[in-house]
Amino acid sequence: MFILGLAMIMPFIWMISTSFKSPAEVFEYPIRWIPSHFNMEHHIRVWTGSMGFATYYMNSIKVAVVCTIGATLLSSLAAYSFARITFKGRDTLFLIYLSMMMIPPQVLFVPKFIMFEWVGIYNTLWALILPGMISIFGVFLMRQFFIRIPSEISESAFMDGAGHYRIFLQLMLPLAKPAMATLAIIDFSWHWNDYENALVFLTDRKLYTIPLGLQNFIMEFNVDYNGMMAAASAAILPMIFVFMLGQKFIIQGISNTAVKG
């Protein structure tokens, strides 16, 4: 496992190492893992140059944070309904909703384009945020967690006069912290690295997110590998921060939402 883990982390080590190298050292063979001189020029140029990387960074933070918060809350509400509220056709509706995971997202680009153009959010960050707040996987994950909570807890709350909203807010959400943290980390990573939706629905360069912004380092006849690696190194920092913040909940959340065969 250590050898496999080391093999998976080697590209990240090369990325960070390349961001401090001179252009001549990038393609040296054998690979020089530790640069002869640590060059901070590429990192400084990424943030202060004409590439606009700071703007792309803030756009990605806005999209990922808002989508993550919205998807976590809305998925929890929908999951509670599917798990705890009995209504006609509930299971059939959930299966239909779950079957949408089998539809490739690329198939929906044209309908989304027409819809966004009609409501006036095309070429705005809302074209990424609003669809991103709906997570089919999130509903499934949270529903599996709520199902595992003993029904006696909510039944006793009903006998004390509590309604669904109070049970959800005061009983279910505190118990669902591990599952919500797991969903938040997974959802944040999805939106932080989303390239296709940003490419299709954003045309204004000032609205670009990091995946699109990295294309600026690909010139007509060459690629600025040092600048690209410096930008990519900065791009993984929020991912590391979010993972470190919620890592203690991940294993607990996944194990609690596991499906028994």
TrEMBL record:
PROSITE patterns: ABC_TM1 (PS50928). Keywords: ATP-binding, Cell membrane, Membrane, Nucleotide-binding, Transmembrane, Transmembrane helix, Transport. It is found in: Cell membrane. It comes from the Bacteria. It holds the Pfam family BPD_transp_1. The keyword Transmembrane applies. GO terms for biological process: transmembrane transport. One of its GO terms (cellular component) is plasma membrane. The chain crosses the membrane at residues 61-82, 94-114, 126-146, 167-186, 225-245. It is a multi-pass membrane protein. One of its GO terms (molecular function) is ATP binding. Its main location: membrane. The keyword Nucleotidyltransferase does not apply. Residues 57-246 form the ABC transmembrane type-1 domain. Belongs to the binding-protein-dependent transport system permease family. This is Sugar ABC transporter ATP-binding protein. It comes from Paenibacillus oryzisoli.
